[in-house]
Structures are given as structure tokens and as C-alpha cells.
UniProtKB/TrEMBL annotation:
Pfam families: Acyltransferase. Residues 75-188 form the Phospholipid/glycerol acyltransferase domain. This is 1-acyl-sn-glycerol-3-phosphate acyltransferase. It comes from the Bacteria. Its EC number is 2.3.1.51. The keyword Ribosomal protein does not apply. One of its GO terms (biological process) is phosphatidic acid biosynthetic process. It comes from Catenuloplanes indicus. SMART domains: PlsC (SM00563). InterPro entries: Plipid/glycerol_acylTrfase.
């Protein structure tokens, strides 16, 4: 039964992505002259992503603490990463951030093309040159007042435990003196296997925005990193 449901679900996604992308193209073209930050396009993309979450009868999603995130102003958002669907559920924040995402996803038809339209930031894992370009691009976005969202673990967890955070997101926050917003993503690790697309049993996912951390309250980027790690780890442990 799960295999059949999975087949139907992914088929619907494949068939509807071109339609949603056509809408994205229209919004991009119409809003480009007055919406340089592409806020409208990002909110449309958020609705596109969340539609696929709501469509799945096995998935439930709730977002708390959304009001803690800014509508305007630079910030660094950091979230734990347990599943492919983390990207979908984090769009439920409905705030105008820019993603930092694997470069491979930008090559996916329609979805990746839409990421290019939105001005999201590609990253080639393991490439020092790509990391430098990513940091420079994120710095530009922060300087323009646009929040950026990163997965500081660098990759999805294998066993569900929170991995060590990399420094980049927190160096950006310190360099540009912008708040860090830790975000705990609960329950998504059970939605899909790491390899394969067969849906699993019902999942109750939750996106929990935690109180912001200010760089001025910490001696350096590493201390800020560790504080964000502790905050997300404690939130995940409380649910477990």
C-alpha cells in the first residue's frame, strides 16, 4: 500500500511541477521591476512546497515560533537536517529568506530552475572554492537586508542525532552583526529513507523557531555556533 501511495504521490509532483513553474515564471517577470529581493516569488515558492506537504495524507505539519522571524532585515537562519523533506517543511516559515542548497538540486528540472529564479545560493559540497563563493554571496545578501538559511551540519544525519555544526553560518553572523535564528525540525527523519522515495508510516512534523541569538552576546563565532547547537539539541531532546 505504501509503495502504491508513493508512486501516486511522486507522479502528482512530476505532473504538477511544470504548472507551478509556469506560474513562477509569470510572477518573476511581473515583479522583477519592483521586487529586487524576489519576496513575492519566494512566498509563491513557499506555497508551492507546502502544497506538496499538505497533499500527502501521511504527513502532518505544524510550525511554531514563526512570529520570531523578521519580515525585513538581515539574519542567519540555521536548522537541523534529517530528511529530504526538510526543505519542503521549512518553506512553511513563509518568510523571505534565501536558501543555501546543494548545487545538484539546482539542476533538477523545474524545481532547480525555480531556485535560480529566486536567487538562492548553490554550494558544491567538499569544494573550497564553492564555499568561498557561497560565503561571498551570502555576505552580499545580508548586506542588502536579506535573511539566509543554512543547514550547518552540512549534510543529512545518518542516525537521527544532531551532528557537529560547521562554522560558516556563524562567521557570517558575526561578520555582518546579524542575529542567528536556530530552528529545530522535528519528525521528518521518519518520512523517507535516506536512499529511496518509498513513503513510510504517518509522520507528524514540526518546525520550531527558537529565540534569536545575538553575536554581541558571545565572544566569537565558535561560541555562537555552540550556543545554536545546544538550543536545537535541547529542543529536539524535549520532543523525544
Amino acid at each position: 500500500m505504501l509503495r502504491l501511495l508513493s508512486y501516486v504521490y511522486w507522479t502528482v509532483i512530476v505532473l504538477t511541477c511544470p504548472v507551478f513553474f509556469a506560474g513562477a515564471l509569470v510572477i518573476w517577470a511581473v515583479t522583477l521591476p519592483f521586487d529586487r529581493r524576489r519576496v513575492v516569488l519566494h512566498l509563491y515558492s513557499s506555497a508551492w512546497a507546502v502544497f506538496y506537504v499538505r497533499l500527502n495524507p501521511l504527513w502532518r505539519l505544524r510550525t511554531t515560533g514563526r512570529e520570531l522571524l523578521p519580515w525585513r532585515g538581515a539574519a542567519v537562519l540555521v536548522a537541523n537536517h534529517a530528511s529530504l523533506i526538510d526543505i519542503l517543511v521549512l518553506f512553511d516559515l513563509f518568510r523571505p529568506f534565501k536558501w543555501v542548497s546543494k548545487a545538484e538540486i539546482f539542476k533538477v528540472p523545474f524545481v532547480g530552475w525555480n531556485m535560480h529564479l529566486n536567487g538562492y545560493v548553490p554550494l558544491v559540497r567538499g569544494s573550497g572554492e564553492s564555499v568561498r563563493k557561497m560565503m561571498a554571496r551570502c555576505g552580499e545578501l545580508l548586506s542588502r537586508g536579506a535573511p539566509v538559511l543554512l543547514f550547518p551540519e552540512g549534510r543529512r544525519t545518518d542516525d537521527g542525532r544532531l551532528q557537529r555544526f560547521k562554522d560558516g553560518a556563524f562567521e557570517l553572523a558575526v561578520r555582518h552583526n546579524v542575529p542567528v535564528h536556530p530552528i529545530a525540525v522535528h519528525g521528518t527523519g521518519r518520512a523517507l529513507p535516506k536512499h529511496g522515495l518509498v513513503l513510510r508510516a504517518q509522520v507528524n512534523a514540526r518546525v520550531e523557531v527558537l529565540p534569536a541569538l545575538l553575536p554581541a552576546d558571545f565572544p566569537d563565532a565558535r561560541a555562537l555556533r555552540d550556543a545554536a547547537h545546544r538550543a536545537i539539541e535541547a529542543a529536539l531532546a524535549a520532543v523525544r
